Amino acid sequence: MVDRLANSEANTRRISIVENCFGAAGQPLTIPGRVLIGEGVLTKLCRKKPKARQFFLFNDILVYGNIVIQKKKYNKQHIIPLENVTIDSIQDEGDLRNGWLIKTPTKSFAVYAATATEKSEWMNHINKCVSDLLSKSGKTPSNEHAAVWVPDSEATVCMRCQKVKFTPVNRRHHCRKCGFVVCGPCSEKRFLLPSQSSKPVRICDFCYQLLSTGEMTACQSTTSDSYSHSPKSSLNNVSDDDDDEDSSD
């Protein structure tokens, strides 16, 4: 089906419409062989709170952006190569239901669909696209991914020292290796994580020690489960301005 649509006029028109919705600030999306598989609104768990984002699934990339005018205008375009994507289902909890993790070496995050059926369709289509890409390229699935950041609202105290309470003065930071919400004194170190940045990035003391001593296996086990093991607490939207390259997220 994908091969049949690849060079069809209908597919070219659909991709052109998506390009126009992102405007001049968005990257061109029309290339030979690219097919728009589907689109829809998903709730992305951002640093401060869950936010609606428009997602577009192509046979080789996943694109999402902020909704300015539904079906007409989007901004802050993000493009994720599907070859690097792995996804994991998330158990329902409270108001957050029908979710899964989208994990890549550079950035990982949770999204939620409106219904269980919609979740199943998204996950099945993403997995099929990834499988087809890897089959064609002969590559193996990526086993490295960035940590999923624990939302600000889920930590009233530092998740490492368990002592410092967050206030407008004691601001929240995120460790780029494990995704935990940590205080300034617990995250003064920087370490080069090439898959995430060309410059050393903020990490917590715990991860710094593991990385510095070469205990990568132990450190990696903390990153993969940082989202599912985050504590639940009262809402508090104090954030750290330098904790995300996209200030809206």
TrEMBL record:
| Composition skew (Acidic residues), residue ranges | 239-249
| FYVE-type domain boundaries | 152-212
Domain called PH: residue spans: 35-131
Location comes to: Early endosome membrane; Endoplasmic reticulum
- Classify the protein's membrane topology as the record does: Peripheral membrane protein
Keyword Lipoprotein listed? The answer is no
- Give the CDD domains listed for this entry: FYVE_PKHF2, PH_Phafin2-like
What Pfam families does the annotation carry?
A: FYVE (PF01363), PH (PF00169)
Q: Which keywords, in A-to-Z order, does the entry hold? A: Endoplasmic reticulum, Endosome, Membrane, Metal-binding, Protein transport, Transport, Zinc, Zinc-finger
Q: Name one GO biological process term.
A: protein transport
| Molecular function in Gene Ontology | phosphatidylinositol binding; zinc ion binding
* Bias kind Polar residues: ranges: 222-238
- Residues annotated as region Disordered? 222-249
**From what superkingdom does this record's organism come?**
Eukaryota
Gene Ontology CC annotations of this record: early endosome membrane; endoplasmic reticulum
Q: Which InterPro entries match?
A: PH-like_dom_sf, PH_domain, PH_domain-containing_F, PH_Phafin, PLEKHF2_FYVE, Znf_FYVE, Znf_FYVE-rel, Znf_FYVE_PHD
Please explain the role this protein plays, according to its UniProt record: May play a role in early endosome fusion upstream of RAB5, hence regulating receptor trafficking and fluid-phase transport. Enhances cellular sensitivity to TNF-induced apoptosis.
Protein name (database record): Pleckstrin homology domain-containing family F member 2
Query: The organism's lineage?
Result: Eukaryota, Metazoa, Chordata, Craniata, Vertebrata
